[in-house]
Design a protein that fits this description.
Low-confidence stretches: none
CATH architecture: Orthogonal Bundle
Strand content: 5-15%
Number of domains: 1
Largest sheet: 3 strands, antiparallel
CATH superfamily: Winged helix-like DNA-binding domain superfamily/Winged helix DNA-binding domain
Shape: globular
CATH class: Mainly Alpha
Radius of gyration: 17 Å
Order of helices and strands: HHEHHEEHH
Strand order of the largest sheet: 1-3-2
Number of helices: 6
CATH topology: Arc Repressor Mutant, subunit A
Number of strands: 3
C-alpha cells in the first residue's frame, strides 16, 4: 500500500506540474505558493512562513519565488519587522495569472484525484489526511521502531 500511495502521489504531482506548465508556465509549487499569497493579508507572507505553509525548505521556496519574481508575478520586500527577513508579495499580474490558472488546477484535481476516488468516503479520507498532517506537525524526529 505504501508503494502504491507513493507512486500515485508522485504521479499526481507530475501531472499537476505538466498541466500548469503547459497552460500557464507555472509549476505546481509556484501555484501553491500563489494560492497561499492570495489568501494572506495584503497578499503578503514572510518567506519563512510561506515555506512552512508550502511544506518546502526556505531555499526551495526562495527559488520558486525567484521564478515568479522573474515573471513579474511576485515581488520581494524587506520585512518591516525584521531587517534580515523578506516577504513575498503577490502582484496584480500574479493575481491575474493565479485566477487564470485556477480552473486548470481544479480540472487537474478532478481528473487525477477526485475522479479516482469514486466510492470512497471523501469526508473520512479528508479527516485521515488531516490526522496525518497533525501527527507530523507534532513530531520533530522519526520515532524509532519498538522492539
Amino acid at each position: 500500500m505504501i508503494r502504491a500511495f507513493h507512486t500515485a502521489f508522485m504521479t499526481m504531482m507530475r501531472q499537476f506540474d505538466a498541466d500548469l506548465q503547459r497552460e500557464h508556465r507555472l509549476s505546481h509549487t509556484e501555484y501553491v505558493a500563489m494560492d497561499f499569497l492570495v489568501e494572506a493579508p495584503d497578499r503578503t507572507l514572510g518567506l519563512s512562513d510561506l515555506a512552512a505553509r508550502c511544506q518546502q525548505s526556505l531555499s526551495a521556496i526562495s527559488r520558486a519565488v525567484g521564478r515568479l519574481e522573474a515573471q513579474g508575478l511576485v515581488r520581494r520586500e524587506q520585512s518591516t519587522r525584521d531587517a534580515r527577513a523578506y516577504n513575498a508579495v503577490l502582484t496584480d499580474a500574479g493575481l491575474q495569472r493565479y485566477n487564470e490558472a485556477t480552473p486548470t488546477h481544479n480540472t487537474s484535481l478532478r481528473r487525477y484525484l477526485f475522479d479516482q476516488l469514486e466510492g470512497i468516503d471523501l469526508e473520512a479520507f479528508g479527516d485521515a489526511l488531516q490526522r496525518i498532517s497533525a501527527a507530523a506537525d507534532h513530531r520533530t524526529t522519526v520515532p524509532s521502531p519498538t522492539s
